[in-house]
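Order emerges. For instance:

***
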Amino acid sequence: MPNINEPTSSGNPVPTGHGRRFRPAGRLRWVATLAVLVFLVPGRAAAQEVDAEILVILADMLQQQHQFRPDRLEAMGLEGLSAVMDFLLPETAEPRKVDLPDETIEELIKQLGAVNYRVRETAFERLYGLGRGIEPLLVKAAENADAEIAWRARQILRKWEAERNADKSRYLPAFAIYTFSIRDDVRLRELVRRTLAALENGWSDGRKQQILQHCISAVAQSGKDEHIDQFKPLLEHEQVEVAVLAVNAVGSRASGSHYPSLLLDALRADRPEIVRQAIRFTTYCQDKSRKPEVQRLLVALFEGENEQLKFEACAPLMNAYDYGRARDYLLDQARTGDRSRQFQVLSQLRASSTTRKTVDEKLLAGLVPLLADSDNSVRRMTCSTLTSYTGEGVVKALIPLLADDYSTIPREVDRYLQSYPEKETVRRLLKDAAEKHPEEKVRQAAEKSLKELGS
């Protein structure tokens, strides 16, 4: 372990030794290790408690990012996870035990106002190095009648606060690689405990949200409801953003074959923001034991009074459960003339690129009128929606758009026709349009596309 000089009141430790186990391999690693030390080592007392191996691992996380290999950290088990969490979420760490009696600490606080500068600085460094375990005494000292004592006590408190709120986002790529390999119950429980502790009073720092989301997602990826369910109280958190974070983190990592019961609870929530987030993760539910309940809850939302939730429930009901009433409702919405709603409807009606269904007459009849809309954006969006389907009706409806004045649309239609798997169908319909369509522009465009298809 290297020797670490006591920091000045700026809080920057200066390495003075070269322990064999600690020596970084190269300048970048040395810089990364120093960055970790600035966060982890507030004074000599703290330095003696920090394991050298953790310092090196954290430096590697900072330097290697997405290439980080968590083998050594994995081998350390719970101890390794706890050390990393102490660093990333220091407010959730257990306060270090302070062996000094209160009388000694009170004497050091008095020395913050000493006439001798060296005495004041030494007292400052010792108090700072003792850590947050003495925070109540420092808070009291910040109101001391002696202005020097009060000022220095506030400086220590501010430095602790700065360390707690420091940006750790550069560690996230490596942290994600490490946490997503966690499957044992001991470390999963630790992730849950730390996350709940951090979110107990909400949050104000957006960068910390990313760390917490990784923690929840890692637990969700385990597929173990006994751990995932521990996050259910977050659905009742007074800050709805916390509840939405939990739903998003669980939903984004839940496998198709396992649908966490937390997401079912989110679909039943009273607050629309939570329900809307939960709807996003219903389409790919393949959990046979819970899929019927997912469908029941979506139908309840569709038949409910909240118009926005009804609208958003349509896509999963239509795509995952073949619920015809949902699609009929969307087609009615497409004819409202509200541009924003039309775009939303068309987006929902797009078929998945992995399924590419054959269009049916009802859907075709609902969309074709929009191809004649005066708004270029509506025509283009409708065109894109239709090209996500197959069928002779789609080809026939799109061919006239080869002559559309909005150049983006003819290009998209031509790409679709040229790549269409049933070439003979396309040739027959293009030839028919080239010979019989009433508009000369369409006849010419169809003939050109036919020649390109032939070549």
Remarks:
- The chain has 26 helices and no strands.
- Residues 1-25, 41-50 have pLDDT under 50 and may be disordered.
- Residues 182-322 form a domain with the Leucine-rich Repeat Variant fold (CATH 1.25.10.10).
- Residues 379 and 418 are 20 Å apart (CA to CA).
